[in-house]
Amino acid sequence: MKIRGLGRFDAENLLRGYSIGDRITVGQKSLTIVEAWLPEARRSMARRAQVIGAKDAGFIVSWMGIGSGSKVLEGGHGSGGLAMHLASVLGKSGLLASVESRPEHAEVGKSNMDRLREVLPEFPEWHLIGGEMSEVGEQVSDVCEKFDAAIIDLAEPWKVLASIEPMLRIGGRVACYCPTSSQLERSWESCEDLGLIVEWSGEIIERRWSKASKGGVRPGNQPMGHTAFLLIAGKIAPHEEE
Question: Hey, what long-range contacts does 152-156 have (CB within 8 A, 24 or more apart)?
Fold first, then answer.
């Protein structure tokens, strides 16, 4: 095992004889052995594609009402960053279908999810489907006929919205993760064309603070960088009752 800042070592031999809560020394660093959870799994995850971080993932989960037992479709699995957050809240009664077109990304994402499965007390029913989102509708429908939520993290979300909309239940929501404003605009227009109601759109800004050397706290030196624009739209009934 290779850990940044610690080097390469045999974790099994190093931890033999120790228990959760014990403190050990690795090189010149003193570490505490803790029970692994989502934060530990994310911190040590392998990355090939850019991941949706905790800032945006937490907002998506909360605003879309995703929780225990929800059925969620993920378009663009990548390294599994968002899927790990989803798995931690869905529980064993939930379902997650992840679609990824690039095998090299799917391989990394699967390894991260397999590791997370080992540490979560409950893990949802999870399906990883290879292929383009617009072309795997039949495979996705075999997994679940109607989803409560769908999250699209693709370069051109507007091109797959038409194939995803029929998979959502009435009252279900779809989120588009858009790095640029032009992607946001086209996704917004596509949602309106499909009769989806845009409920929220914008970006989540994170500003970290740190402790000053001479006392007090101040904004940290980390940049308030842009991650992506988010758009969340809901599906309503197609016609009003007479």
Answer: 152/75, 152/76, 152/176, 152/177, 152/187, 153/52, 153/74, 153/75, 153/76, 153/78, 153/82, 153/177, 154/75, 154/76, 155/183, 156/183, 156/186
In the predicted model, what is the mean pLDDT of residues 193-199?
Answer: 98
Residue 189: band (very low, low, confident or very high) from pLDDT cuts 50, 70, 90: very high
CA distance 130 to 183: 24
CATH class of 41-234: alpha beta
Query: CA-CA distances (angstroms) from residue 139 to 47, 143, 167?
Result: 26, 7, 12
Q: Tokens 């990548």, residue?
A: 78
Rounded-to-integer distance, Cα 58 and Cα 236, Å: 24
Phi (first) and psi of residue 112, to 5 degrees: -70, -40
Per-position b or e across 85-95, b if 16+ CB within 10 A of its CB: bbbbbbbeebb
Determine how many CB atoms are found less than 10 A away from the CB of residue 134.
17
Which of 110, 113, 93 lies closest to 102, judged by CA?
A: 110
pLDDT in tens, 8-25: 777 677 778 888 888 888
What tokens were used for 117?
A: 């499965």
Sorted by where each begins, the domain ranges of the chain are 41-234
Local structure of 49: helix, strand or coil: coil
Phi and psi of 29, rounded to 5°?
-115, 140
**Residue type at position 15:** L
| Parallel/antiparallel/unpaired status of strands 229-234 and 197-202 | antiparallel
The pLDDT value given to residue 1:
57
